[in-house]
Design a protein that fits this description.
Elements: E1 5-7, E2 11-14, H1 15-19, H2 25-32, E3 39-43, H3 48-64, H4 68-73, E4 84-87, E5 91-93, E6 96-97, E7 101-107, H5 129-132, H6 146-175, H7 183-190, E8 195-201, H8 206-211, E9 234-237, E10 243-247, E11 250-253, E12 289-293, E13 299-301, E14 309-313, H9 315-320, E15 330-333, E16 348-357, E17 364-366, E18 371-372, H10 373-384
Parallel strand pairs: 1-13, 2-3
Antiparallel strand pairs: 3-14, 4-7, 5-6, 7-8, 8-16, 9-15, 10-14, 10-16, 11-16, 12-13, 12-15, 17-18
Helix pairs in contact: 3-6, 6-7
Length: about 375
């Protein structure tokens, strides 16, 4: 039986209210509380955000269409494919490997210090390459402008997350007994383990969209073949960090606009970014995209405006706030065949960016049990690896 789907607008605030610490507690409860959707939309972002989003999400298609040999050179098996390129390595559902999307993982320690490419080795966690292996960047002559664009947009997301964290601190200081003043903002600003994930959901042919079975030219599905399963592009899961910053998805018709890299001769300078790809004005199917599954079994479709950021709650924040704010189960659903833009033969990719802000490995996240984030994260990585 297919679950009932409702459409609901998430709580929205503007950047200035976060900067002025004037967002009301009722809004935070409605956004992150036990009966909430677990998501907050932030509008009125800096003007450069729109261009950065279009450029970086276009790079996701360029990246995913590089040759297998190049993609392999950009992968890091020793870090469990959680640095650089990853495809088909993550198990999310019934032991099946997720091959419907490719990811490019970036350590965001550079936001604390531009000289850092990863979290330093930890005395408490000496063998944690998922966070301590250095970033892998494509050569600048292959993808000019990619690193600079990625670092700038990730930095903007983290700066905004720090303001959301400050609001959460104000709330937790009143309602969570023994809460450390300014804890979450300190964690977000000083984290050396924050991880960005640039996602490319591969275009699906009509047969795989309509029947949940991959066609020969499509990546194989992680689904168990149940047509009633909605989470066909990304299985239902919760994030394990504190706050996850999300851009809205960029939908690219790759059959009409192939992500073919321009020759170096067509770029005046290697410092110039690759031109962003044309995108569709909206999802090819209004029912495709991000969904949140509530604790009462209600499935809600979430639309993030293209000029906004969304912030979701993760498992670590739920533990830190002792359940005052709750982690949100979510998934991504593919377009159906025959939608407005989903005509036979049209291959539409979905690209987005998620930035997982989380504590440093040695940070205690569960005061009652004395659990450090490194132990907490290792448990989750092992669960999905």
């Amino acid at each position: 039986m297919v679950a009932e789907v409702v459409f609901e607008s998430p709580v929205m605030t503007n950047l200035k209210d976060l900067e002025d610490s004037s967002i009301p507690f009722t809004a935070l409860e409605a956004a992150f509380g036990p009966s909430s959707l677990g998501i907050l939309i932030v509008k009125d972002l800096p003007p450069r955000f729109i261009d950065l989003r279009q450029r970086l999400l276009s790079y996701a298609s360029y990246l995913a269409n590089l040759s297998p040999e190049v993609l392999e050179s950009l992968s890091c098996p020793t870090a469990k494919y959680l640095v650089g390129w990853s495809h088909g390595k993550e198990s999310l559902k019934n032991g099946h490997y997720d091959t419907l999307k490719g990811s490019y993982y970036i350590n965001c320690a550079f936001h604390v210090s531009p000289h850092l490419s990863a979290a330093p080795l930890s005395l408490d966690f000496p063998n944690f390459p998922e966070y301590t292996a250095p970033n892998i960047w494509p050569p600048e002559d292959l993808l000019p402008g990619f690193r600079e664009t990625a670092e700038e947009l990730c930095g903007l997301v983290i700066d905004t997350a720090a303001l959301v964290a400050r609001a959460c601190d104000r709330y937790a200081g009143v309602y969570v007994e023994g809460y450390e003043k300014g804890y979450l903002e300190r964690v977000v600003k000083g984290s050396l383990t924050t991880k960005a994930r640039l996602l490319h959901y591969f275009p699906l042919e009509e047969t795989s969209i309509s029947g949940n079975t991959p066609s020969p030219s499509s990546p194989s599905s992680s689904s168990d073949g149940n047509d009633n399963d909605d989470d066909s592009w990304c299985a239902t899961h919760v994030d394990h960090g504190c706050l996850t910053g999300l851009t809205s998805a960029l939908y690219i018709g790759e059959s009409a606009h192939p992500p073919t890299l321009p020759s170096n001769s067509s770029l005046p300078s290697l410092k110039q970014s690759i031109p962003p790809l044309p995108s569709l004005p909206s999802s090819p199917d209004p029912l495709a995209g991000l969904y949140i599954r509530s604790r009462t079994g209600i499935t809600t479709k979430i639309n993030i405006p293209s000029n906004c950021l969304a912030f979701q709650t993760g498992e670590a924040l739920e533990v830190i706030t002792r359940g005052k704010f709750r982690a949100v189960p979510h998934f991504v659903k593919t377009p159906r065949a025959g939608g407005e833009e989903g005509r036979a033969g049209m291959k539409v990719a979905r690209n987005t960016l998620a930035v997982f802000t989380q504590p440093n490995l040695e940070e205690v996240v569960d005061l009652e049990r004395g659990v450090k984030f490194g132990d907490f994260a290792r448990e989750v990585v092992g669960r999905h690896g």
